[in-house]
TrEMBL record:
Protein name per UniProt: MBL fold metallo-hydrolase
Positions of the ODP domain: 23-217
The keyword Iron-sulfur appears for this protein: no
Molecular function per GO: hydrolase activity
Keyword line: Hydrolase
Organism encoding this protein: Candidatus Nitrospira kreftii
Length: 266
């Protein structure tokens, strides 16, 4: 059964822990004049998520369905939600609408959001932020709620485990541990590190969010700007360009199997 936590007035975290993968999947429901669901969850979780949403609003009144990028846990059940809520629209990036959403996913044309454009749901104002390749995918974007200063940040601050819903303690060590662990297996490099990564994270930090609402892990409540700068440092360390000491004499990068020895000896 999904767990529901109110992380800000009428902004709810709906979370299911999937033990075999040691990971939480969270969706965020905004109960407002025009209700918004950010993340739909994968299809296997739809019955639980639907029941949780129904305990908070009439699902037929859902107006907006948002997500960061084209991936199962972000948007797999958009068609099911749009069948339930006949007036609902997907809200996504311009790139998302053009290259994927309208053709592959949504039952109705999506509302494309330009960078910096604002979506008003009633008492809340959500500023859309185009964040290509952060956390991943060309069409990626995030929503920043300006009233309570909550950043709906998708896979940023990913923490494995069945952790608490909210915390005022730093989650950076958890994020680093999760990312380093992923680098050891088939999910390596699930966050690309590229020329826009640092710039994007620092741009988000300027917003000075008070809450960082991640899909996987605890919502962090506190100095969101510092946390984003800290995350940028972790990503640079774990995912950034390899230092010369990690380049082999034949000019190839040291493989993942050597990561702990050469980059993370502890």
């Amino acid at each position: 059964m999904a767990k529901i936590t109110e992380i800000a007035p009428d902004l709810f975290r709906i979370t299911t822990f999937v033990a075999p993968f040691n990971i939480q999947f969270s969706q965020f429901l905004v109960r407002d004049e025009e209700p918004l669901l950010f993340h739909t969850g994968p299809r296997a979780l739809f019955p639980e998520v639907k029941a949780a949403v129904a305990s908070l609003i009439d699902p037929q009144t859902l107006r907006w369905i948002g997500f960061s990028h084209f991936e199962s846990d972000e948007c797999a059940t958009v068609p099911e939600w749009q069948q339930l809520a006949s007036h609902s629209e997907v809200v996504c990036s311009v790139v998302g609408k053009m290259v994927s959403v309208d053709d592959c996913l949504a039952l109705r044309p999506a509302k494309a959001m330009a960078d910096g454009e604002v979506l008003e749901t009633g008492r809340y104002r959500f500023r859309f932020l185009a964040t290509p390749h952060v956390p991943h995918c060309w069409e990626a974007g995030l929503l920043f709620e300006e009233t309570e200063r909550t950043l709906l940040c998708s896979d940023l601050f990913h923490q494995d485990g069945d952790v608490e819903p909210m915390t005022e303690s730093s989650v950076i060590d958890r994020c680093r541990k999760t990312l380093v662990g992923y680098q050891q297996g088939p999910l390596a490099n699930y966050v690309p590190y590229c020329s826009v990564t640092d710039t994007t994270l620092h741009r988000l930090a300027v917003l000075q969010p008070k809450r960082l609402a991640t899909m996987h892990g605890s919502v962090y409540v506190g100095d969101g700007s510092k946390a984003l700068h800290d995350l940028a440092a972790v990503w640079r360390e774990v995912l950034g360009p390899l230092p010369l000491c990690c380049i082999r004499s034949d000019h190839r990068a040291i493989g993942d199997h050597d990561y702990n020895t050469h980059v993370n000896p502890s």
